[in-house]
């Protein structure tokens, strides 16, 4: 789940924001057991997921029975940054979008958690390396991971059987072959069932979800964008265009227009209109709630033919929790953050309800964690050491948006030269890094 609209507001609203608990400052004291106060929590959770998360937040009352939790759902990153700018932030911020973390850490919108971690002697080795990397920026830890999202591969077992395909594809050659076999056309030539939709952005089809499977990275050792020099980015976009050309760009656009929204019951995969897709582990919960009769399997995403060692990997991101600058109850906020990010029982309950991957090593092996074959795929990927996060940058997700904007132009055939097009993307990203990086 990626926010592409929040970056401009986030950077503009919070640039120059000072303060927060500095790395050399004293942490705010924890509340007394009988203290009465209200903790306001912002998150983007809604509907079924909102109730599950609220229940997890309420577990803090086992330690602090007089603390009330005011959980305000459907609060996106724009609303969060506007509340910080206006001087009325929540006590705790929960965000889906790790890509904005670099900007939040860089400009002080999220408080440094190191004083709390040091005081309470929190052992961060209980978090896997990839998770630690996407919750800090340049050594500054201004967020903690609540749950992780691992992006794998979903496929329709009935459609596979009808097409005579016995196993999910492991590389791009197999993916292209399977997409052709699984695609069904109507008599007028329009698409009836798509084997695999290659257009970006659509559902979880975005450049950042594909990149790890091609071994493509955004920034070079010097911290600058180097897409045009990358054989992996070129291979990724060439493969994408090959699939686009197989279907026809206009036919794909027409087909997509008839599919349901990403989180609705009419999602194309859930209605049997899409045979294969890349998505996060959380999709399993939607399928079991909205499409109970769908027979599906999961696997690691296919990788570039020349990168077989990447198989078993993919993108990892997740839900992050932080104390915003100006929070009224930072000491109590930290106690809530510890509850939902480090307590095994709380994490397992949240993981079981949301079908997300729990983010500590202890919760991954807890016997109460519900693991079926489809979910086990993501746990195996999570523990396999091949997952990659998006880089944290001071420009939030602006670099991701730039690449996806380019992908739209490329797939539509309006970019005549791939290398020259990627050079322009590099220039755009590097210009923003120079302006915002300080």
From TrEMBL:
Ranges annotated as spanning the membrane: none
Gene3D superfamilies: Periplasmic binding protein-like II (3.40.190.10)
Keywords, in A-Z order: Signal, Transport
Protein origin, superkingdom: Bacteria
Keyword Signal assigned: yes
Localization per Swiss-Prot or TrEMBL: Cell envelope
Chief location: other
Pfam families: SBP_bac_8
Keyword Signal: yes
Task of the protein: Part of a binding-protein-dependent transport system for a sugar.
Record family assignment: Belongs to the bacterial solute-binding protein 1 family.
Protein name: Probable sugar-binding periplasmic protein
Species for this entry: Amycolatopsis minnesotensis
